[in-house]
Here is the input.
Amino acid sequence: MCLAIPMRVISIEGQRAVVEQGGARRTISIGLIEEVKAQDYVLVHAGYAIARVDEEEARRTLELIEQLAERADRSGVQPPDESGGAA
Amino acid sequence: MNQDLILLSHGAGGQLMSELIDAMFVSGFDNPILRAREDSGVIELAGERLALTTDSFVVTPVVFPGGDIGKLAACGTINDLAAVGAQPAALAASFILEEGLEQSLLRCCVQSLRAAAEEAGVWVVTGDTKVVPKGSADKLFITTSGIGLVPHNLTISASAARPGDAVLVNGGIGEHGMAVLCAREGIDLQLDIGSDCAPLNGLVRALIDAGCDIHCLRDPTRGGVAAALNEIAQQSRVCIELREESLPVAPAVRTACELLGLEPLQVANEGKMLVILPEEQVEAALAAMRAAPYGAGAAVIGRVVQGPPGRVQLKMTVGPTRVIDRPVGEPMPRIC
Amino acid sequence: MKYVDEFRDPRVVRDLVEAIGRVPAPRVRLMEVCGTHTMSIARYGLRELICERADLISGPGCPVCVTPQGEIDWFLEAARLPGVVAATFGDMMRVPGSYSSLEQERARGADVRVVYSPADAVELARKNPDRQVIFFGIGFETTAPAVAMSVLEAQRAGAANYSVLCAHKLIPPALRALVEAPDLAVQGFILPGHVSAIIGSRPYEFLAREHGVPCVIAGFEPVDVLQAVHMLLLQVAEGRSAVEIAYGRAVSPDGNPKARAIVSEVFDVADARWRGLGEIPASGLAFNAAHAAFDARRRFEVTPPPAVEPRGCRCGEVLRGLIAPEQCGLFAQRCTPRAPVGPCMVSSEGACAARYRYGSPGGRA
Here is the structure.
C-alpha cells in the first residue's frame, strides 16, 4: 500500500500547501514533514505530504544506473539476451 | 453474499453492468436488433434504415468543469447515433426534476442542451417533464432519445473489426470521467482540463465523406476505452493490441489517475470516438479527423492483431504486454 | 511527470535488466511486502523481464488483505447504525466481510462515503454535526500518520462527532514473524519504500544482522524495483546481508521522525490479529488513553455476528508467500475480481487481483 506521487509545492499557508504536477493541483497538509519551501517536490499520500523528494538523490540514482551500463559496454561484456521484448 | 441488489457498480459501464444488461434487458426484450448490441438500434422503415437511441443522464455534480448535464444529454445521444453512421434528425428530451431544484439551474442546463443540439444541427422536437419529491432524484435527471437515417452503403458494426485493421481515437482519453470525479466533494483536485463533452456527428460525417470504409465506431463512455474495445473484440471475435506510447493522455488526467490509483483506459469519455478501419485508410482517416471539429488530436492507438479472440492487450513502453480488462465496477480512488 | 517518467524510461529499464543478467548469482526467491509493489510488478510485467534470475513473490503487504474478517464485519455493523456516516478509502468498498460489503451496505441504505483523505472525513464531520462520522483506519506506517493527524485536527476543530476504527498494522513485526517461521524460503526482501519514508531503514536491521537476509528498500516505479532486485542479487553474489536504500530520493536511514511523533501522540503499539498470520505481538496500533474519545470501538456498542472464513479460500497461504495465486483452487474459477471470495482478489493490490488483472497473455486460466 502506499500510492504517493511527487508533486511540486506552489504556495504555503501555515500547515497547508498548494501542490501541482502536470496540470493537476490540490491543497494538502504539510503537517507531517519539516522544512518545506515553494518549488520543493513532496510525496503526496492520502492528502498529506509524507516526505520531501531529494533532487540530488534522484539524480544520483539515475547516474549510478547509467554507469552500470557504461562499465558493461566498456568491458565488452555481452549480456545474455533476455531483455524480454524491450526491443 | 447476497447478489440480488442493484449496486452503483451496475451502472458503471464495466463487467457488472454488462452482465446486468445481458441478463435483464437483452434477455428480457429479446430481439435480433437488441442482440446486436450496437450504440443505436437500426430498423428498416419505409425503405430506409432508421437509427433510434436513448440515454439517461444522472451525473453528479450537475455542473462540472467543461459542461453540465444538459450538454451531456445532447452529446451522448448525438454520439450514439453517430456511432452507427447516422446523422441526428431529431431529439426528444425528458426531464425528471427534484422538488426544490432552482429554476435558474434548470434554465442553464436547458440552454446548454440547446446549444449542443444546434451545433449538431438538430432540434429537440418533443419531451416530457416530471417532478419528484425531494430526495428521489439528485437535482435533475435527463433522458434524451434521438433518431437519424443510416446511409444504405454503410456497414458499421461492433462485429466488423478484422485482423490488420487500425484503431484510432480523435484525442485525449479519460477527460470527462476525471473532470467529474475530481470536482466531487472529498476529492477536490483541480485540473487544467475539463470534460471533453462534444457532439461528434461532424467528425463522423468527415470520415464518411472522405470515403473511409469504416468497420467499427464506438463512443467510449462509462467504462472507458477498455470497456468499449473489449465489447468490440468480443463481438468481432478478434484480438486488439494498443500501444502505450501512442495513447493520447493529457498531463492533468495522467497525474490525477496516478494520484487516485486509476487507469486512463478505464475512465469515461464524452467527446471521443473510437474508429476501426483497414490499415490502408489510416492516412486518409487521420487527415479527415484532424480537419474536423474535435479531431485535432486524432491518433492511431493500436491494431487488430492475431491473438485470442475477445482479448484487448497493451504493449507497454517498458517492454512487456499486459491484458486490459473492462473495469469491474465504478472507478474507485484508492490509497494502496 | 517529474520524478516519475525518468523512473519508467525503457532504456534505463533495459540497462537494469541487462545488469541483473550479469550478476553471478544463482536464481533467487525475493519477497515484497507491499501491495503497491505487488501492483507495480504485475502492471509493468517485471516478473517476465527478470524471470531467469529471480522469482518475485508477494507477502502480507496489502493492508486490505491482512485486515481480519472480524474487523471488516465490525465496520459493516457500525455502518448500519442510524445517524452514522461510514467514511472509507475506496480500497475497502468491495472487500467481502463474512456477510456483506460496504458496497452492498450502501445499496441497502447505509450512508457510505469514499474519501481520498482522512482530512475529508473530518470535514464531513464538521459539515454534519448531527451525524456520527466513523472513518475506517486501515493501512501501514505510511497511512497511520495521516489518520493520527486527522484525529488531532478533529480535536482542534471540536469535531467530537468524528471517530476512527483503528485497524493499522506495522510491517517490521510481520517481517519478524515471517522470517522466524520455518517454512519461509526467501533469499531477499524488497522492502516498502513509503513505509520506509516514515520509519527509515533501522527497524529492518534485524533481518540482515540476526537472520542474514539481504534487504533493499525500493520505490515503486519499474526502475526502482529493478534496481532493488539488482542490489539484492549483488548482496547474494557477494555473500553479504545488509539493509540498503535504493529509494534515496524519499528514504533516509532515520525516516520521518515528525510523522512518527504524531502517530505516538494518538496511538500506542498493540498486539494485532493478521489474516493468514494470526496474532502477532506489538504489530498494530490502538488509541492511547489521551485520545480514547475518538476510538470508534469505545464509542459504539457493536456486536457483529461471528466471523466466517470463506471455504476453500487460501488467502492466508498466499499472504505468507507459501503458494502462488494460481495454486489456489478458486483462482480465476470461483474467485475473480468480478465475484471475489477472499480479499486477495478484491483488493486492487492483492496478489491474486494483480495476477488476474495484469496477467501477461497466456498467464491466465
Observations:
- The domain at 5-74 of chain A is CATH 2.30.30.140 (SH3 type barrels.).
- The helical segments of chain A are 55-74.
